[in-house]
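Box 3.1 A note on notation
Throughout this textbook, protein chains are presented in two layers. The first layer is the amino acid sequence; the second is a token string describing backbone geometry. Keep the layers aligned when reading.
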Amino acid sequence: MRAVGTVLVLVVLATLVATGARRWRIPAPSLLVIAGLAVALIPGTPALHIAPQTIALVVLPPLLYASAEEMSLRDLKIVWRPVTVLALGLVLASAAAVGFLAVALTPLTAPMALVLGAVLASTDPVAVTALGRRLALPGRVQTMVQAESLFNDATSLVLFKVAIGLAIASSAVSWPKAGGEFFLLAGGGSVIGAAVAGVVALIRARTTDPVLETVIALVTPYAAYVLAEGAHTSGVTAVVVAGVVLGRSGYRLTDARIRLQLQAVYSVVVFLLESVVFAIIGLELPTMVRDLPAGSGAWPLQALALAAVLIGLRVLWVWPLSRVVKPVEGAASWRVAAVVTWAGTRGVMPLAAALSIPLLDDDGTALPGRALVLVLTTAVVVFTLVVQGLSLAPLVNRSGLALEPQDTAREQEHARQQIARAGLDYLDQLADLGAAPEAALDRVRLALDARLRHSLAQDHADQDAGDAPFLQVCQQLRHEVIAVQGTELQGMYDSHQISDSTRRQLQYDLDLEESGLSSGR
């Protein structure tokens, strides 16, 4: 009962704080971590101990899946080269730099310092997505930082396993074996994720029950994660691949009503899980500090030094890369480098990895340095979420990369006009063929003309409520027009005429209109 009560209190606290964050325009993860720290420092607050499998199995899969679904596959195809360089090279370089610094500044042994480096080497997709959700970043920049955090798991996980092997058994490192394990983790996870996505797509294409669709959507990330972990591959990679594949084809698998329901349900799930997990990060730090052995009082300075070297190395790595590959045409390379660097925060996944460090080595004795690794990891996570999180939005605004609201509104309005014209052209074709009553065509055409002229006129003129067959014809015509508009919208996106955010917003508007027609039957 105490555990249930703790979870309920966390949900209430996190919901209140996250609601305030939205109202005050402060990144919710940053404020949640601060709130967690504040609560943990209150005298009498019970110590919080979270099992690593709880975060890894319960929290991570749906958050990773939602993040992967939001990612633009079109933009990913453009920035895959820098993403690969960051997900492989920068992770290895960060692990080495943190390991060397930890040996120099802390009492950690070389193997445990490497464990710390492997834990902190990769950016966190949950934190990156949560922080970037309200930033008006260009699509390719957003995709670059998001894809890097999603696809660097295999690299850091291989390093983590190698480092743990050194720490608990002092075994020799076989780099060819480590390389083979990397391809097993990344490749195997990708294959399982794609297979799960294919099976789910077949099931969802044959399902029309909204409740069943919702259950399938909620189970999908857990199925991909559990199957991949059971096959000793990367569960994170499997979830990411499944999310990217289904996010690309999801609009074709279900109707508008189900898509709206799925979006609403997943929004609630993501909100609750993100809110609770970031509050837990703040709550756990004081508890971990109390468990530190004597002589570890310098941990704040050590954590600050580790965070500084991670940021500095990221600057040195990203700046020349941004000069070679410019995600935004005409943007100065240093502006892109600054934003991509500062968006690389640590978060939930490093904490889960640190918690999974074994308690004992092969001799059955306590693993030395584990408590310090936990504290340093959590402290770096808190630092990046608070400092980088609170300053990321001002940096984006000052960099000049932020999309202006009027530009976004102009693009959306232009897209609305184009899909409205596509609908009118379809009605003209039906009129030429005599495939529908002229009165019904005129009624639907009037609504599209009003939208095209930015008019607020409503389609209620001359409506005869008693003419049920005529109204059914009008509804069917509007369904067909919406389908044509959806096809035109996807074509505009595929031809790079509009951004992914515009496509999602207009598809949402079309879904609302189609759902309204269905509910009015």
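Residues 256-290 form the longest helix (35 residues). The chain is about 80% helix and 0% strand.
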